[in-house]
């Protein structure tokens, strides 16, 4: 089915409740496709800002949405789903909360008719929130989990699937339980670990912070997330998160024990070195399972280019990568304070790595042997 045919199913109107990062981003993406989007938010200023950014328009009397998307914090998700189902009984209602089991249990416990409700969750986001950070392409190439049950009408399921496809995502069906266990491992625990590691920097000597490179930046990137929002997310998904944290604590205890058994001169008790090596190797195996861009299940090679700290240099590099016909799968930048040169680490498929190196060197770029 073409993009035009899918968008035609949303020919009437989409209502978005909550104009934060995800709500405003969905609005921007749908508006680009010519879909009529109305916005609602408990905060008048947040609503006005999202309207100003073009994510949709203010509701008017007589509006009848075909699809309602609830994009609010977890602690009010279930109450607003209930409100929207009652206000628009002919509409399909979905939500984008990062926890799916608790809202379903809350609504079921109240006896709410959930025939037209389908929980969903796009695995997309940024470190900063609000409409000011919204982007229409934030969902492109990202998974979009859809939680249906046996009572979900096929036409309602198709509407939510088409929403995900229209926004460039890949729909994935899961039960609420499967979803919550999965995001505990790949999203919620990483947030906790990043925050705890970043907290070690608070009282670190300035000399140590000055040495910070890409390693600590990569592992703490998400530590600037909103504490209030994450308090709600972690509280709503506490049991699966605790299970993973217990396992992680056991692994940490193993490494701590092995390091404690290693002397300053490098000698160690039997098995200590192997325990450390096994821990690092297990990490290699885990990283190897991570999908690449657009969910591709393949590994990439890196080409690290030395980039002078001059205006326009990075832009020229990216332009020339396109000119030599190399598809860049990912990009990481490293630049130490005060340094006159930085490093651009470009991820490419293995079969083009050597050609990329040769073509870039022919154009005068210096390749770092890292």
Shape: globular
Listing every helix as H and every strand as E from the N terminus to the C terminus, the arrangement reads HEHEHEHEHEEHEHHHHHHEHEEHE
Walk across the major sheet and give the strand order. 2-1-3-4-5-6-7
Helix tally equals 14
CATH class of the largest domain: Alpha Beta
Overall average residue pLDDT:
88
- Helicity range: 40-55%
As an assembly, this protein is single chain
Catalytic activity: prephenate + NAD(+) = 3-(4-hydroxyphenyl)pyruvate + CO2 + NADH
Enzyme class: oxidoreductase
Family: Belongs to the prephenate/arogenate dehydrogenase family.
GO biological process, one term: tyrosine biosynthetic process
What is shown here, in short?
The protein is an alpha/beta fold and 370 residues long.
Please write out the topology.
Layout: H1 3-8, E1 14-17, H2 21-32, E2 37-40, H3 44-52, E3 67-70, H4 74-87, E4 92-95, H5 101-109, E5 117-122, E6 143-147, H6 154-166, E7 170-173, H7 176-199, H8 206-210, H9 214-220, H10 227-236, H11 238-260, H12 272-288, E8 301-308, H13 313-323, E9 330-334, E10 341-348, H14 353-362, E11 366-367
Parallel strand pairs: 1-2, 1-3, 3-4, 4-5, 6-7
Antiparallel strand pairs: 5-6, 8-10, 8-11, 9-10
Give structural notes.
By secondary structure, this protein is of the alpha/beta class. It has three domains: 3-174, Rossmann fold (3-Layer(aba) Sandwich), CATH 3.40.50; 181-260, 6-phosphogluconate dehydrogenase C-terminal like domain (6-phosphogluconate dehydrogenase C-terminal fold); 300-367, 2-Layer Sandwich (Alpha-Beta Plaits), CATH 3.30.70.260. It has helices spanning 3-8, 21-32, 44-52, 74-87, 101-109, 154-166, 176-199, 206-210, 214-220, 227-236, 238-260, 272-288, 313-323, 353-362, and strands spanning 14-17, 37-40, 67-70, 92-95, 117-122, 143-147, 170-173, 301-308, 330-334, 341-348, 366-367. Strand 9 (330-334) and strand 10 (341-348) form a beta hairpin.
């Amino acid at each position: 089915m073409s993009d035009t045919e899918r968008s035609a199913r949303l020919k009437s109107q989409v209502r978005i409740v909550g104009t934060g990062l995800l709500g405003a981003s969905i609005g921007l993406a749908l508006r680009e496709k010519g879909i009529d989007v109305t916005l609602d938010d408990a905060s008048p200023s947040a609503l006005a800002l999202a309207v100003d950014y073009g994510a949709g328009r203010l509701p008017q009397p007589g509006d009848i949405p075909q699809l309602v998307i609830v994009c609010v914090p977890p602690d009010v998700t279930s109450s607003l789903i209930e409100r929207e189902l009652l206000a628009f009984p002919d509409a399909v209602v979905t939500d984008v909360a990062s926890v799916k089991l608790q809202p379903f249990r809350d609504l079921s416990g109240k006896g709410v008719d959930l025939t037209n409700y389908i929980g969903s969750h796009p695995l997309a986001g940024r470190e900063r929130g609000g409409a000011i950070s919204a982007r229409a392409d934030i969902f492109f190439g990202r998974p979009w989990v859809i939680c249906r049950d046996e009572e979900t009408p096929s036409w309602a399921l198709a509407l939510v699937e088409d929403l995900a496809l229209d926004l460039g995502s890949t729909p994935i069906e899961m039960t609420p339980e499967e979803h919550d266990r999965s995001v505990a491992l790949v999203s919620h625990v990483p947030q906790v670990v990043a925050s705890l590691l970043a907290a070690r920097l608070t009282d670190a000597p300035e000399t140590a912070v000055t040495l910070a490179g890409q390693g600590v930046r990569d592992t703490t990137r998400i530590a600037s997330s909103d504490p209030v929002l994450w308090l709600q997310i972690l509280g709503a998904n506490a049991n699966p998160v605790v299970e993973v944290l217990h396992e992680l604590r056991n692994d940490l205890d193993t490494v701590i024990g092995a390091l404690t058994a290693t002397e300053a001169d490098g000698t160690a008790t039997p098995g200590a070195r192997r325990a450390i090596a096994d821990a690092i190797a297990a990490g290699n195996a885990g990283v190897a399972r991570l999908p690449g861009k657009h969910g591709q299940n393949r590994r990439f090679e890196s080409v690290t280019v030395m980039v002078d700290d001059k205006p326009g240099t990075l832009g020229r590099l990216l332009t020339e990568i396109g000119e030599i016909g190399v598809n860049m799968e990912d990009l990481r930048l490293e630049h130490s304070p005060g340094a006159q040169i930085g490093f651009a680490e470009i991820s490419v498929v293995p079969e083009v790595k050597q050609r990329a190196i040769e073509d870039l060197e022919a154009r005068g770029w210096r390749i770092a042997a890292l």
